[in-house]
Amino acid sequence: MNKAPTFVTVxxxxxxxxxxxxxxxxxxxxxxxxxxxxxxxxxxALGDILIVGLNSDDSVRRLKGDERPINxxxxxxxxxxxxxxIDYVVGFDEDTPIDLIQxxxxxxxxxxxxxxxxxxxxxxxxKSYGGEVVILPYIDGYSTTKIIDGKIQSxxxxxxxxxxxxxxxxxxxxxxxxYTQKLDFELxxxxxxxxxxxxxxxxxxxxxxxxLLLAKAANEQQVKSVGNQSxxxxxxxxxxxxxxxxYEKLKSRDVKFVRPPQEYDYGTVAVxxxxxxxxxxxxxxxPKNKGWINR
Length: 295
What we know:
- The chain is built from ten helices and 13 strands.
- With 295 residues, the chain is α/β, with parallel strands linked by helices.
- It has three domains: 10-156, Rossmann fold (3-Layer(aba) Sandwich); 161-226, 2,3-Dihydroxybiphenyl 1,2-Dioxygenase, domain 1, CATH 3.10.180.10; 231-295, Signal recognition particle alu RNA binding heterodimer, srp9/1 (2-Layer Sandwich), CATH 3.30.720.
- The strands form three sheets. A five-stranded parallel beta sheet has the order 3-2-1-4-5. A four-stranded mixed beta sheet has the order 6-9-8-7.
- It is elongated.
- It starts with 13 loop residues before the first helix and ends in a 10-residue tail after the last strand.
- The relative contact order is 0.10.
- Residues 1-7 have low confidence and may be disordered.
């Protein structure tokens, strides 16, 4: 088997593929990923010899744009030639491999994805002499473009986050006024859902980690929880990079502080109440504070 990452002529196949079932597939294979490997291994399982048609650099540029390929033909061919499931790597400079298919006359051609037989390059030609056209299962979510755009994450690295915390309030507009005017929060959304219910989201300006969902109390039990969602404990924690600035600003706006500023190992903190009595820490964290998520 030829494993060298060089252009191989059609003539070089003749002796090796006699009386053997030849499978052909093709692609750019710019950044090899799980989806590619699955298609290649499934292709090899359909015959004795797997030949991979590999788009030249010029061909990739015409198909994918001037920023592609990421890896040169030589590098792409080298990687493919090291896969045990591949017997030959053949380059082609055209936009499609039809000339290559007509020269090779493979027994099977394959492609991964949601193609139909009629949409595959060379399908009519291969069927004309009794060959097979096989559409292979496609692993959703994997593509070179998504990898380049940073849209694929390893399942071991999936990041979850708390998006919203529901804060029960007795009036939407009063709560919005306090959080936007007193605390300088940003009103991110205020959508009417019904005559009684709105979807109201506020968050500190520039925050990306989490936001508050201002939820109007809808029954007697919820009304009782307004201002006391944590049973008298500090409920929420507002981090700041300049404690003195924000402490003086909130005091000037008549925000009620119930505990004066104090220094701890984890940072400088003072406790204030919102308009309903929920207690907040205003906190400038120290480097030792493990709650300071710095990405």
